[in-house]
Design a protein that fits this description.
There is one protein chain. The protein has 165 residues and is α/β, with parallel strands linked by helices. The protein has helices at 14-31, 49-56, 109-120, and strands spanning 40-44, 64-71, 84-87, 97-105, 125-133, 150-155. It is built from three helices and six strands. It has a six-stranded mixed beta sheet, with helices on both faces. Helix 1 packs across helix 2. The two termini are 17 Å apart.
């Protein structure tokens, strides 16, 4: 049995994904000043780690990287709406620009919760960079902080669940 035999339809080719990640990295590089303190890219574990790795390789600025984990799905595919922080940052983000890197922004609960957490930890601004955005499923609107931006890889409509490899 082939590894990809369960895939019904390819939504984006590897080349399209690579091109979009390069575009996002170029946007981030362009939006941030090389004279500013290095931004901290925070990957939301564990789903965002491959996207984060691809992204950081293409950002043309000094950066720091850390991870955070918030559990909002439990064992299912539906958000509980009440994210619980299960792994916090090791780096101090006080006075720094943070880019929260997510695999999928769905209900918005996790992102909103994490933005609030980063703000309480003293981040001067918070951006969000999502590989996939599912705005039709949004239940909680979130806002970036300070000079933050929302970077969106691909917008998804009408799909309930993804497995990203």
């Amino acid at each position: 049995m082939a590894l990809d035999s369960h895939i019904e339809k390819v939504l984006w080719t590897a080349g399209e994904i690579s091109d979009r990640v390069a575009e996002l990295a170029a946007e981030i590089t362009s939006d941030l000043s090389p004279n500013s303190p290095a931004p901290v890219l925070v990957g939301v574990a564990t789903g965002a780690f491959v996207f984060l790795a691809d992204l950081v390789r293409q950002i043309k600025l000094p950066i720091s990287v850390d991870f955070i984990r918030a559990d909002s799905y439990g064992a299912g595919t539906e958000s509980t709406g009440a994210p619980r922080l299960s792994l916090d940052l090791k780096l101090d983000v006080t006075g720094k620009h943070v880019i929260l890197v997510e695999d999928i922004v769905d209900s918005g609960s996790t992102v909103a919760s994490l933005i609030g957490h980063l703000e309480k930890k003293g981040a001067s601004s918070v951006s969000v960079c999502a590989f996939l955005d599912k705005p039709a499923r949004r239940k909680v609107e979130f806002r970036v902080v300070g000079s933050g931006n929302y970077y969106r890889g691909f917008e998804v409509w009408g799909f309930a669940f993804f497995a990203l490899f």
